[in-house]
Structure formats: structure tokens, C-alpha cells
Amino acid sequence: MRKAFVLAFKEIEIGPCLSLQSVCQDGYSVSQSPVAGLDTSEVLSRLNKHQPLISADGNYQNEILKSVFNIGLKTTKAKPLWITPNSIRPRSSVSQEKGSTVFGTPDSTLHRQFARLLNKDVKYILNFANKFGLLKRHDVHNLVFRNPATGQQVQMGESLLWWHEEIIDLASCLKLWDMILSKDKGLKDIILWHRDGIVIRLDSGDIQLVNRANMNLLTRWTRGDVRGPALYYLSLELNKRLANSLTPRITEFKKQEVYFYPDTLLSAIWLMFLLEINGCTRLLRCCVCGDYFNALDPRARFCSTRCRMRNYRKSTARKSKRRR
After folding, report:
1. HSE-CB of 46 using CA atoms within 13 angstroms
2. Is residue 144 part of a domain?
3. What value does the mean pLDDT of the chain take?
4. Residue 30, domain member (yes or no)
5. What are the φ and ψ backbone dihedral angles of 64, each rounded to 5 degrees?
6. Alpha-carbon dihedral of residues 209, 214, 215, 221, nearest 10 degrees?
7. How many domains does the chain divide into?
8. What are the tens digits of pLDDT across the range 32-48?
9. How far apart are CA 104 and CA 86, in angstroms?
């Protein structure tokens, strides 16, 4: 019989996915309208021309409305905010070498950078958007609007509340993964076994992982196991986030290398998380600045020469102080 072909993920390179993102050259700002300078009703009218936002049964609570107009997400009395591009002019061509989001480069920590926006001020989120662009959850964010007063063309923005939701979801998964790596005993307070299944208690809320509908999953683990259910939950989240969002390509046929191009920045973020779990990247935290970096050298402790020299000067100063 012919042997089945199996592709090992550790042999897969990651293409320059940042070249697929449209980063606004003029930067991003916070607006009270989905499109800067336009009234919300005007934006809604334009969206309905391209993609009806009302379902057949008249229900407004669909996914697009939730992400664009915060219906069902608005938790405060204040007006919801959006991160809006200042124009439609894209930044000049993104380098596909050092500095781009490719396998083995500093931006393999993209998911860690995104998760660190948790509990940060909006200016930090804007800095992330100015560097990488919008997350692009829906095609509706690619629509171009023209301001009748100024004639300037701008694109649809993204809900700041939705950015916060995505950051919380990823940060919860990363916290769970870090606890698995460190064999944290606190996992028993997150993975809760009970008579009818397993519940995972995360910052975003309690999730019923196993219930009476899928009780057969309990045979995979011994009762009280926390690592197995935690990894199972992470696999479910990654599979859901990356479904239909990666495009495989072969760019150099001689080497027969497979490249995976994420379709959106959000899928690129979750892909970097997948690479960390799979072992394609080995992320460590710098002993000096606290930033994560991909440690290609197993002896590495610092993210850069600058941090290494800073640590050297501090240790030298401590030694001289002891001598005195």
C-alpha cells in the first residue's frame, strides 16, 4: 500500500502575513462614529446597501451588528468608541525580512504583545493598531466611505469594546497555557470537576467544557486531571479561531516549503499562539525589560544586546558595591 502523506507542522514556515494587512499610513484615532466624520445613521444606511444588517426574521442581534454597532456589547451609558483609520492610504510595502511577522522573527511574539494590552489605556491599543493595523473580523470593515464635506475617503473602524473582548479572550488562554507550562497548582481552582462534567473558570466567565451531552470525553482523563482538560479547551479555541482563516501556498517549489498566510491580523495573532503551543517557537521573558522573545539559543536570557549589557552593568555595579 502507498504510504499516507503526513505534513509535520514543525517543518511549515510562516509567510509574511503582515504584507496582507493594510496599515493606515496616516494612523488611527478614537471616534464616536464607526467612520470618522460621518453620522452613525449615514454609516448604517451605507452598510445596508452592501450587506443587509437585518436578518430575515427582523432580528437585529446578528454578528455584524454586534461587532460594528455594539448592540448587545454596550455595558456603559457612555457612547461606544471605535478605532477608525484616518484615511485609506496604506503604509508603504512592509518588509518581508527582519521585523515582519514571519517564522523565527521578533514578531512571533505578536500574540503576547496583543495580550499585554489587557487593562491598558486606549493609547496603547492605538499604538498596536498603528504598528499592525485593524484586526479585520468582518469584510464590512473594508468598505470605503467618502466624507461629503471634505471629500476625504476613510474606511470603517472597529469597535473598541470588541477589541477589549478579543484581548480578554486571548489573555485568558495565554494565562491558562502559562499555568500548564509551569505546572501551577492553581489549575485545580480553574479546572473544576463535578458530578455532571467539567467547568473551566476563566476571567471571561465560567465555561461548561464537559456536560451530559459529551460525557464520553471523561474517559480521556482520570478524574481530577487538570492538564488534559485545559489542553483540550485550548485546542477547541485555536481550531475555532483559525477555521477558514489560513491560506496555504508553496512559494519555492524546489525546497517544497509550505507557507501559511493568515487572512487577517486576528488570525495571525492566534496562529502565533498555535506555534508557541506546538513548539515551533520558544518564547521566554527577558530578565531585564520583561518583553517576550523567541529564544533560538537555549542559553538565551535576554531579548537583545541592549538588555544583556544593561544586566551586565547592573551586576558589575552590585559587585563593586559589595567590595566597597
Report:
1. 19
2. yes
3. 77
4. yes
5. -65, -45
6. -60
7. 1
8. 888 877 877 778 777 77
9. 32
pLDDT digits (tens, 9 = 90+) for 234-247: 999 999 999 888 88
Look at residue 84 and tell me if it is in a domain: yes
Collect contacts of 202-206 with beta carbons under 8 A, ≥24 apart: 202/172, 202/175, 202/176, 203/168, 203/171, 203/172, 203/175, 204/168, 204/169, 204/172
Full DSSP string of 152-210: -EEE--EEHHHHHHHHHHHHHHHHHHHHHHTT-GGGGGTEEEETTEEEEEETTEEEEEE
Rounded to 5°, the CA angle 230-231-237 comes to: 95
196-224 residue pLDDT tens:
889 998 877 788 898 888 888 888 899 88
Burial class (CB in 10 A: 0-12, 13-18, 19+), 198: buried
Give the three-state DSSP class for 96.
coil
Query: In terms of residue numbers, what domain contains 58?
Result: 21-168
- Provide the whole-model pTM: 0.80
If residue 13 lies in a helix (H) or strand (E), which one and from where to where?
Answer: strand 13-14
196 located within any domain: no
| Residue among 203, 204, 266, 200 at smallest CA distance from 233 | 200
Question: What is the structure's pLDDT at 143?
Answer: 78
Determine the 3-state secondary structure of 54 from DSSP: coil
Contact (Cβ atoms closer than 8 angstroms) between residue 202 and residue 187: no
Tens of pLDDT, residue by residue over 48-73, are 776 666 655 555 556 666 666 666 55
Contact (Cβ atoms closer than 8 angstroms) between residue 146 and residue 153? yes
Whether the Cβ atoms of residue 68 and residue 138 lie closer than 8 Å to each other: yes
- The cell for 249 is 501556498
Return the half-sphere exposure (C-beta side, CA atoms, 13 A cut-off) of residue 70. 24
Q: Which residues of 113-123 are buried (b: 16+ CB within 10 A; e: fewer)?
A: bbbbbbeeeee
Cβ(234)–Cβ(187) below 8 Å = no
Sign of CA dihedral 236, 242, 243, 246: negative
